[in-house]
Structure to design on (370 residues):
């Protein structure tokens, strides 16, 4: 009996290994890139526009021929075998393709020794599990109805505080002459900072992120808590990334809500009322200062997400230097990049100017009111 015709081999449908994360398309100088992270090895790298176009389509549902057709439709040319071999070889060597041998995990860099003056200390063995427990307990607050109500309360509080900013600033200045209430306020502000960090982790966890570390970092006399979200740039949506970055400052302001209620309505003696007023002023400054769009603050991360860029500050400086000198190289930047870098550069200068003007007006008020 003769054998039937041999079945054609199934077309290869490449897929990235589980645990490989790919970011959105991001501006990087005049180019666009994607960030790729191997969570198993803890390493990440950038790929250019064409490579990212191909890699982002390696989901196991498309064959190489289908991906090649999409590439030809986008860029007007087909990839040859040599190009495919180079790309697949690179991904396979790094252990990023499903079915390829996993690349060995590199030896972790030795942690710098802890000293009395500086160091870090992990507080929990499994930071992601801790963030998960906090999310299960408090995640209901991330429901849109709760968010709307809490943000409305924060806006109302800040409106009242702005109307009394002179009184609050004078109380804050006086606080530094009173050691006991100053110590109490410092402890409360430190607690607010710790909650700020945990809020980043809880919101990231809510959106599918992973919390790598929760610990203490000290550079005496400063001791702060930290919460590291390793895959922040790989959260599924821009909205999720902005919410994660914004969570800390919002939590700082929510922390002040009960103290604002005490200041407004409780029958406090004058000394206690002034101490609470100082806490409200310093806590608001603490929260809003984190939203200034300069690295490494949360406001910078939010600005980078709105711009859809990585290394936004450096790219903006490079572009604006070219633009000011009327260098022809500035014309090589695509319109989206020119708009983003110009908006960030001018916006940052405007914010710094407004902050300086507000500080000057506040100092003038305190001096003339004395």
């Amino acid at each position: 009996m003769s054998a039937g015709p041999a079945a054609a081999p199934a077309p290869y449908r490449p897929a990235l290994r589980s645990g490989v994360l790919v970011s959105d398309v991001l501006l990087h100088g005049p180019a666009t890139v994607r960030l790729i992270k191997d969570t198993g090895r803890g390493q990440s790298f950038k790929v250019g526009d064409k490579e990212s176009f191909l890699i982002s389509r390696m989901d196991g549902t498309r064959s190489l021929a289908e991906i090649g057709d999409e590439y030809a439709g986008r860029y007007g040319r087909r990839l040859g075998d040599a190009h495919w071999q180079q790309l697949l070889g690179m991904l396979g060597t790094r252990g990023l393709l499903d079915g390829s041998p996993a690349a060995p995990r590199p030896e972790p860099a030795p942690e710098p020794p802890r000293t009395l003056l500086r160091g870090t200390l992990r507080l929990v063995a499994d930071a992601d599990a801790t963030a998960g427990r906090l999310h299960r307990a408090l995640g209901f607050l991330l429901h849109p109805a709760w968010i709307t109500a809490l943000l409305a309360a924060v806006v109302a509080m800040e409106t009242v505080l702005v109307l009394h900013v002179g009184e609050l600033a004078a109380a804050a200045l006086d606080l530094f002459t009173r050691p006991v209430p100053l110590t109490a306020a410092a402890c409360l502000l430190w607690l607010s900072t710790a909650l700020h960090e945990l809020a980043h982790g809880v919101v990231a966890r809510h959106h599918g992120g992973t919390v790598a570390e929760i610990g203490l970092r000290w550079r005496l006399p400063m001791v702060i808590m930290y919460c590291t979200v390793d895959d922040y740039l790989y959260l599924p949506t821009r909205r999720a990334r902005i919410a994660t970055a914004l969570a800390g400052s919002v939590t700082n302001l929510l922390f002040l809500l009960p103290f604002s209620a005490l200041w407004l309505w409780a029958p406090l003696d004058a000394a206690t009322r002034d101490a609470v007023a100082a806490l409200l002023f310093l806590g608001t400054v603490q929260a809003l200062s984190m939203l200034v769009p300069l690295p490494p603050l949360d406001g910078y991360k939010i600005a980078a997400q709105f711009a859809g860029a990585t290394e936004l500050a450096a790219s903006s400086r490079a572009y604006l230097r070219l633009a000011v000198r009327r260098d022809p190289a500035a014309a090589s930047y695509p319109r989206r990049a020119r708009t983003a870098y110009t908006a960030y550069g001018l916006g940052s200068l405007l914010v710094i100017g407004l902050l300086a003007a507000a500080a000057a007006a506040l100092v003038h008020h305190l001096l003339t009111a004395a």
The two ends are 109 Å apart (CA to CA). Strands lie at 20-22, 26-28, 31-38, 43-47, 118-122, 211-219, 222-229.
